[in-house]
Protein backbone atom coordinates (compact mmCIF):
# COMPACT_ATOMS: atom_id res chain seq x y z
CA UNK A 1 0.00 0.00 0.00
CA UNK A 2 2.44 2.70 -1.09
CA UNK A 3 4.10 3.26 2.29
CA UNK A 4 2.11 6.43 2.97
CA UNK A 5 1.13 5.22 6.44
CA UNK A 6 4.29 6.68 7.95
CA UNK A 7 3.70 10.23 6.74
CA UNK A 8 2.62 12.80 9.28
CA UNK A 9 -0.10 15.23 8.37
CA UNK A 10 0.37 18.54 10.11
CA UNK A 11 -1.44 21.80 10.25
CA UNK A 12 -0.50 24.93 12.04
CA UNK A 13 -1.20 28.47 12.95
CA UNK A 14 0.77 31.40 11.68
CA UNK A 15 0.28 34.91 13.04
CA UNK A 16 -0.11 37.37 10.17
CA UNK A 17 -1.43 40.90 10.00
CA UNK A 18 -5.04 41.30 9.00
CA UNK A 19 -3.98 43.38 6.02
CA UNK A 20 -1.66 40.71 4.59
CA UNK A 21 -2.75 38.35 1.83
CA UNK A 22 -2.94 34.75 2.93
CA UNK A 23 -0.48 32.29 1.42
CA UNK A 24 -1.98 29.78 -1.01
CA UNK A 25 -3.84 26.92 0.73
CA UNK A 26 -4.04 28.80 4.04
CA UNK A 27 -7.28 29.80 5.72
CA UNK A 28 -7.87 32.56 8.25
CA UNK A 29 -9.32 31.97 11.70
CA UNK A 30 -9.66 34.47 14.53
CA UNK A 31 -9.71 32.85 17.96
CA UNK A 32 -12.49 34.17 20.18
CA UNK A 33 -11.70 36.22 23.22
CA UNK A 34 -11.88 33.93 26.21
CA UNK A 35 -10.12 32.35 29.14
CA UNK A 36 -7.59 29.67 28.26
CA UNK A 37 -5.67 27.11 30.28
CA UNK A 38 -2.15 27.04 28.85
CA UNK A 39 0.43 24.31 29.35
CA UNK A 40 4.06 24.72 28.31
CA UNK A 41 5.40 21.37 27.10
CA UNK A 42 9.05 20.45 26.48
CA UNK A 43 9.86 17.08 24.96
CA UNK A 44 9.32 14.77 22.04
CA UNK A 45 6.33 16.11 20.10
CA UNK A 46 5.15 12.56 19.44
CA UNK A 47 4.58 12.19 23.22
CA UNK A 48 2.68 15.45 23.66
CA UNK A 49 -0.54 13.51 24.23
CA UNK A 50 0.47 13.00 27.85
CA UNK A 51 0.67 16.78 28.25
CA UNK A 52 -2.92 17.07 27.03
CA UNK A 53 -3.90 14.47 29.63
CA UNK A 54 -2.25 16.51 32.38
CA UNK A 55 -3.90 19.71 31.20
CA UNK A 56 -7.38 18.16 31.07
CA UNK A 57 -6.80 16.57 34.49
CA UNK A 58 -5.92 20.02 35.87
CA UNK A 59 -9.10 21.48 34.34
CA UNK A 60 -11.22 18.68 35.85
CA UNK A 61 -9.66 19.25 39.29
CA UNK A 62 -10.05 23.04 39.14
CA UNK A 63 -13.00 25.39 39.46
CA UNK A 64 -13.07 25.65 35.66
CA UNK A 65 -14.61 23.46 33.00
CA UNK A 66 -13.68 22.79 29.41
CA UNK A 67 -15.51 25.15 27.05
CA UNK A 68 -16.16 22.35 24.56
CA UNK A 69 -14.12 24.06 21.85
CA UNK A 70 -11.00 22.85 20.08
CA UNK A 71 -7.65 23.57 21.66
CA UNK A 72 -4.61 24.64 19.71
CA UNK A 73 -0.83 24.46 19.91
CA UNK A 74 1.64 27.31 19.48
CA UNK A 75 5.15 26.36 18.35
CA UNK A 76 8.12 28.68 18.72
CA UNK A 77 10.09 26.88 16.03
CA UNK A 78 9.15 24.76 13.00
CA UNK A 79 7.37 21.52 13.81
CA UNK A 80 9.61 18.43 13.81
CA UNK A 81 12.81 20.47 13.88
CA UNK A 82 15.34 19.85 16.65
CA UNK A 83 12.51 20.85 19.01
CA UNK A 84 14.63 22.47 21.69
CA UNK A 85 11.93 25.04 22.32
CA UNK A 86 8.57 24.53 23.97
CA UNK A 87 5.12 24.06 22.56
CA UNK A 88 2.27 25.85 24.28
CA UNK A 89 -1.04 23.97 24.45
CA UNK A 90 -4.08 26.23 24.75
CA UNK A 91 -7.54 24.96 25.82
CA UNK A 92 -10.48 27.30 26.32
CA UNK A 93 -12.11 27.09 29.75
CA UNK A 94 -15.19 28.56 31.41
UniProtKB/TrEMBL annotation:
InterPro entries: GyrI-like, Reg_factor_effector_dom_sf. Gene3D superfamilies: Regulatory factor, effector binding domain (3.20.80.10). Residues 21-77 form the GyrI-like small molecule binding domain. This is GyrI-like domain-containing protein. It comes from Lederbergia citrisecunda.
